[in-house]
Specification:
Radius of gyration: 13 Å
Oligomer: single chain
Helix content: 25-40%
Shape: globular
Structural class: alpha/beta
Distance between the termini: 29 Å
Strand order of the largest sheet: 2-1-3-4-5
Number of strands: 5
Number of helices: 6
Strand content: 15-25%
Length: 137
Amino acid sequence: MLLNDEYFMRQALKEAEEAFANDEVPVGAIVVINQKIISRAHNQVELLNDSTAHAEILALTSAFNFLGSKYLTDATLYVTLEPCLMCCGAMYWGKIGRIVYGASDEKNGFKHIVKDNWPFHPKTELVNGILEDECAA
């Protein structure tokens, strides 16, 4: 059975729910390769007293460690909220193959900061709006 973007975004939403339960900004992320989740994370900024402990950063770090590689060219990162510019930088340097996010972030999302510039690796594919209403909630 081939799993789709909605299935994997629902997995990221489970991570966001965990963040919410822990009084964190409710953002969740997972990294998938060949239909298999290789890492999952949620925001832990408050828990770790670390402004860089975003779901995307933690999920990427876990994926790099799992693979023993600094690049994720064959991976898809699913995240419930539009990535900030810091997270975009991590995705750029990790050469992530595909990024799928749910809800836009009018305040801190990359689109509202870089406007028409592409903050990802040139080969990265971007998909947005998957389960947008659920992710925004």
